[in-house]
Amino acid sequence: MNHIVLIGFMGCGKTSVGKRLAKRLDLTFVDTDEMIEQKMGMSVSDIFAGFGETYFRQLETEAIKELSETSSPCVISVGGGLPVQSQNKPYLRNMGKVIFLTATVDVLAERLETDTSRPMLQGGDLRKKIISLMEEREEAYREAADLEVDTSRQSFGKIIEKIVENL
Ligand code: S3P
């Protein structure tokens, strides 16, 4: 498959970068969270609250499976937890270029400080949550990725150029 898949931690810029990249390449932009919200007619927060995380993870697997069967190339932003689930790894591997967007803990904390839409980060100390989840996930992100791009210190223009150069 020839998709471009953006992975990385919540707040790393997958949606903002993905939309700009799709525009630049004249491709459709798809977001797995949005697919799930549309299918369920509910927000991600409400799905977590009503059905639990395990059910949400099943919905993510259905979404990535469906996208892996889509032949026209898309720029795809996947939820931060998706690449970590072992059942999703074979799909990711066969979808095309996988780009890991990174950002420092400070930058992530700043971007996520006032966010209330991400159930994995609600309650307790935000920085501590970011650090411990990142520790759990970083290896999976690295394993899945063909390219790593830092979003902390670069403009969108530079980020997009770096990705396009490496396609
Ligand atoms: C999650 C990331 C979110 C969303 C859900 C769970 C995670 O997506 O899928 O809140 O476990 O990292 P974004 O990475 O697009 O914020």
Give a quick precis of the structure.
This protein has helices at 14-25, 32-40, 44-51, 53-68, 89-93, 105-112, 126-144, 156-165; strands at residues 3-7, 28-31, 74-77, 96-102, 147-150.
CATH-defined topology: Rossmann fold
Question: Main β-sheet: number of strands, strand sense, barrel status?
Answer: 5 strands, parallel
Task: Please tell me the total number of domains.
Answer: 1
CATH architecture descriptor: 3-Layer(aba) Sandwich
CATH superfamily: P-loop containing nucleotide triphosphate hydrolases
Which spans of ≥5 residues are poorly predicted at pLDDT below 50? none
| Elements, N to C (H/E) | EHEHHHEHEHHEH
What structural class is derived from the secondary structure elements? alpha/beta
Q: Taking Cα atoms only, what radius of gyration do you get, to the nearest Å?
A: 15 Å
Number of separate strands: 5
Helical region count?
8
Strand content: 5-15%
In the sheet with the most strands, the strands line up as: 2-3-1-4-5
Text of the CATH class? Alpha Beta
User: Distance N terminus to C terminus?
Assistant: 13 Å
